[in-house]
Amino acid sequence: MTTDIIEINNFVVLIDSTDAQEAEIYKCSFDQDMIGITFYDSGNVEVHVEYESGSQVLKNSKGIAMSFLGNDTVSFSHKISQSEPLNTVSIFSTLEHIHQLQDQEKSLFETYLHGLLYSSNAFELGPQVTMTAEMHLAISKIFQTPFQNSTRLLFLKSQILELLSHYFAQIEEKPQASFPQGEQEQLFQAKEIILQNMNQPPTLTELSKLVGMNNSKLNKNFKQLFGMPVFKYLQAQRLHKAYRLLKEEELSVQEVAWNVGYDSLSSFSNAFQKQYGCRPSALTA
């Protein structure tokens, strides 16, 4: 695990990455009340949360942005899967610092994270949203920036502010869905099946049978929880993978298209431009 820790205007930012071939476990805790917002650009992490009154297990995977509150009695144990490289960006602030922000900035946290700011619990989850293409793009820029020293810090500040802006905008656009624990587990299982079979995904009917939920309910509840219907989510994740391959691997556009499950190069190119605002060939020039 490689962790880059920077401080931006009293916010602590952790930029984590690993491509280890074996599962990794690392632990952490806080020394005061903290709010965290984590963006899972890629990778899968199982987080065991222990606190005085109980415990929780969170299964966080790529494409999710989530927030939480934790105090000094909470401990976190992260088990990072070796199934694919991990790239995450986490933004932390003390409650004290948030309450001291200027009115305009403070109002954002009070509007969208009110339940965390005024919670009496040791640990509490806040809003979770599906990451947009703009969020993925901002994180890609964070990991790939050529800037150094003070120039890099200035650039990272701009990207962190962009991530926060997109996160709050997603919360505003998406009513927070609430499902019984069993149904929520079925929906997360459906998401994992999609992510693990992007090249040859099951049909909606096959997916429904695999998770034990009928077609219409699965598609409707999936959209409520993850922000988009099943196969729109599949397309977004395919294109995100394609973006990473184009930036990080020496592959042709055609090879990338095949890699993410597109038989038609023109269909791939058009979908990529719609999501990222440019043709895939622009990333290989």
Structure description:
It comes from Flammeovirga aprica JL-4. InterPro entries: Homeodomain-like_sf, HTH_AraC, PchR_regulatory_protein, Tscrpt_reg_AraC-type_HTH. GO terms for molecular function: DNA-binding transcription factor activity; sequence-specific DNA binding. By secondary structure, the protein is an alpha+beta fold. It folds into 2 domains: 172 residues, Jelly Rolls (Sandwich); 102 residues, Arc Repressor Mutant, subunit A (Orthogonal Bundle), CATH 1.10.10. Helices cover 46% and strands 27% of the residues. The protein contains 11 helices and 10 strands. The strands form 2 sheets. The chain has a 6-stranded antiparallel sheet. A 4-stranded antiparallel sheet has the order 3-8-5-6, with no helix packed on it. Helix 4 packs antiparallel against helix 5, helix 6 packs across helix 8 and helix 9 crosses helix 11. The longest helix is centred in the middle third of the chain and has 25 residues. The model has no long low-confidence stretch (mean pLDDT 88).
Layout of helices and strands, plus pairs?
Elements: E1 2-8, E2 11-18, E3 24-29, E4 34-42, E5 44-51, E6 54-61, E7 64-70, E8 75-80, E9 86-94, H1 95-99, H2 103-112, H3 114-117, E10 123-130, H4 133-144, H5 149-173, H6 181-196, H7 204-211, H8 215-226, H9 230-248, H10 253-259, H11 265-276
